[in-house]
Amino acid sequence: TPEIRPLVAGNWKMNGVRASLDQIKAMSEGVKGPLSAKVETLICPPITLLYVATALCTDSPLAIGAQDCHEKTAGAHTGNVSAEMIADCFGTHVIVGHSERRTDHREEDALIRSKAEAAHDADLVAIVCIGESEEQHKSGQTLDVLKRQLDASVPDDATAEDTVIAYEPVWAIGTGLTPTVQDVEEAHAFMRAELVKRFGDEGARMRILYGGSVKPSNARELLGVSNVDGALIGGASLKADDFLAIYRVY
Ligand code: PEP
């Protein structure tokens, strides 16, 4: 198996005001040091803080990204932000297809794929989120759902450099619940096999993050599972101490 550089990523969702930049500053300092050669870090604050956050991190390995982008480059789309605009503010990554976007904004796989393509066109890394609902989990459909979402929301020309997969069981997001280690291992092994089938070498090297109630107390166990190449962290990414504790698991 190839050497993969894990990614520890934070999604602030609709949380954070200017005062919260103190946390980003603390993270940007905290990730300096030899571990940063081994582990990549990223925070996705609300778009209002993106530009200032990137300015705070110019001398830090902490990358800054956005939580969503529009599929078009510009135009009459009131309230939306393009991938180019994110890149223009020195953002380097964008999350697409988060379950809250899929639910709250009825986003579906084809749109999410277009957003990932827009991200790539703007030279951003797309973090494509997939994951089964509680009902799908309970009725044993997890792997079917993952296959369908991977096939339909990841662009055909995705590479290990420009695309990251985030597996987030919807029922584990913000609930404090996590799948068993066995379930995480099975899901990640399945996604790895699917990615290798479709993308060959690129699929073998593409990072697959786990997301859903990751916190300092369970990070060691979850990040130790094979084919888990990092985490996408919601609640526990708001505080520098928690985020850095998870990073230091590596
Ligand atoms: C998320 O929003 O991607 C997430 C995983 O949230 P939490 O860590 O709070 O469950």
Automatic annotation (TrEMBL):
Its EC number is 5.3.1.1. GO terms for molecular function: triose-phosphate isomerase activity. Pathway: Carbohydrate metabolism; erythritol degradation; Carbohydrate degradation; glycolysis; D-glyceraldehyde 3-phosphate from glycerone phosphate: step 1/1; Carbohydrate biosynthesis; gluconeogenesis. The active site is at 98 (electrophile), 168 (proton acceptor). It is found in: Cytoplasm. It is an enzyme of class 5 (isomerase). It comes from the Bacteria. It catalyses: L-erythrulose 1-phosphate = D-erythrulose 4-phosphate; D-glyceraldehyde 3-phosphate = dihydroxyacetone phosphate. SUPFAM superfamilies: Triosephosphate isomerase (TIM) (SSF51351). Substrate binds at residues 11-13, 174, 213, 234-235. Keywords: Cytoplasm, Gluconeogenesis, Glycolysis, Isomerase. NCBIfam families: tim. Involved in the gluconeogenesis. Catalyzes stereospecifically the conversion of dihydroxyacetone phosphate (DHAP) to D-glyceraldehyde-3-phosphate (G3P). Homodimer. Belongs to the triosephosphate isomerase family. This is Triosephosphate isomerase.
